[in-house]
Structures are given as structure tokens and as C-alpha cells.
Task: structure prediction
Amino acid sequence: MAEGLEGVLLAHRAQLLRFLAAHGAGAAAEDLLQELWLKVAASDPGPVANPLSYLYRAANNLMVDRHRASVQAAKRDAAWNDASTTVPGQSDVPSDERAVIARDQLRHADAALEALGERTAAIFRRHRIDGVQQKDIAREFGVSLSTVEADLRKAYRAMIDLRRRFDEG
Result:
């Protein structure tokens, strides 16, 4: 049988579950109670004068934390939607001019990468485009991690220089 706070939590499980459900946890009440149990099992707060009150307070704090996280997530999602929402009456498709400029810039970027050497260009593409981790690229190319890092630095420097030229021109 569990002792201390765990024992009190298990003995008053139904009450704590009703408390969470009644105070807005709804369907997440079981999840919050499980989270509370995990926190209690992992902590050692020492002697607690009123363990049931302590558990109610901890349960309430979990609900507040979850509420804050959901509010922050909603704000972040709203900001993302506002930033990426299309303007009514305007197409998301870039203009012909923008498409031509983008293709031209891509040709310049490819040429700048190829000028650095085949391995450097391939490593840059594997990391930045394919999302492969540096250690895996090192294994794949049979080179050291520091070689991969050096090649990426060269490629980044070339891309930054190219970007500056685009911005100036």
C-alpha cells in the first residue's frame, strides 16, 4: 500500500477526479490526475501538514498551467494564421515576375554551391534540404564530423554572400 501523499491521493482519487472535472478539466480530468500522481511520485516534499489540501492545490496548479499553455497555444496559432492567411481577392500564387526572379536566384545559388565543390554542395543539400543530421552525413560521406561542419560553414558563407549581392542589386 502506498504511503504519504501517494497514499492520500489513491484514497481520495475519486474526489480529486470530481474536483478536476468540476473545475473545468472536463475530459482531461483523468489525464490531469495521472499527471498529478506522477508529480507526487517523483517529488519528496517532506512532511505535509494537510496532505489532501496539498493535493487539491497541486491539482489546481496543474489546471492553471494547462490553461495557460492552451491560451498561449491559441495565441500562437492565431498569430500564425494571421501571418499566413491569404488576402481576399489576391492569389497565393507568386506573380510571373517573382517566379522568374526566384528561378534566377536558385540558378545563382546552385552555381555558388557547385563552385565550392561537389562534396560541399552535396553535404549542404543533405543537411538543409533533406534535413539529415550532421553525424549521419559524416557517416554517409565517410568523413569526420568536423569536415561536415567545415563544409557547411563554407556553404553558409557562400549563401550569405550571395544573399548580400541579391539585396544590393
